[in-house]
Amino acid sequence: MEHGHGHGKMIWELRFMTWVNEWWSSPVFDYALPWFTYLGSHFAFILFIILSWVITRQRKVLRYLIFLYAIQLAVIYGLKFLTQRQRPFLFLEMGSKISKGPGEILDPSFPSAHSDFSFMMAVLLALWFPRYRIIFFIIAGVIGWTRIYLGLHYPTDVVAGAILGYGITKLFLHYFPLSLRQGRELQ
Q1: pLDDT per position as a tens digit, 128-162
Q2: What's the pLDDT score for residue 9?
Q3: Distance CA 12, CA 15 (A)
Q4: Residue 31, Cβ neighbours under 10 Å: how many?
Q5: Which backbone phi and psi does 181 adopt, to 5 degrees?
Q6: 51 near 175, Cβ under 8 Å?
C-alpha cells in the first residue's frame, strides 16, 4: 500500500490513526477539537505575543518573542517544504472532521506547526508560571493529539513539532532570557 511521498513507510501511522478514528471518535470531540486545536495556531501565538507585551510593557519581551517566532517559522516551514509530506486525511476517511471548525491552511504535514507553537508557549508559560508547568505541557500535548485526531498530522509530525517547539525555545532562552518583570527571572 504505497501512497507516494514516503507514505508506504508510514503505514503504521495510518493504521494508528485509523484506530484512533474508530476508537476515540465521538460527536463531542468532532465538534470541540477543531476549535480547541487553534490554541496552537499562528493566530494564538501572535495573540500570546501581544498579550505578553501588554502585560509586561517591555519592548524586549516583544522583540524576543517576535524573534523566537521567526526562528520557529523558519525551521518549521523549511522542514515542511523540504519534506513535502502530504496530510494524512488525504488517505483516510476523516475529511468531515476538518469541516466542523474554522478554516485550515493545508501546507505540507511534517512537522506540525501547531504542536511546535503549543510547546513553545508551554515552555514560556512554564518559565513564567512554574507552579502550573504540568498543566501547560498537558494542554500542549492535547493540542498535538487534536492534530492526529483530526487527521491533519501523522503522530511523527506531532512528536517532531513538540520536540522542535520545546528544544528551540529552551535553546533560545539560554541565549535570550525572558522574564515577565524587569530585572527578575521567574525560574
Answers
A1: 999 999 999 999 999 998 888 887 888 899 999 99
A2: 60
A3: 5
A4: 13
A5: -120, 145
A6: no
Residue 6: phi and psi, rounded to 5, are 80, 10
Cα 153 to the chain's mean position, in Å? 10
Q: pTM value?
A: 0.80
Fill in the amino acid letter for 159: V
Cell 508506504 belongs to 8
Q: Angle formed by the axes of helices 155-175 and 11-23, to 10°?
A: 100
pLDDT for 96 beyond 60: no
**Is the per-residue pLDDT at 120 higher than 80?**
yes
Report the SS3 class of residue 111. Answer: coil
**C-alpha cell at position 147:** 492534530
Distance (Å, whole) CA 94 – CA 184? 48
> How many CB atoms lie under 10 A from the CB of residue 63?
12
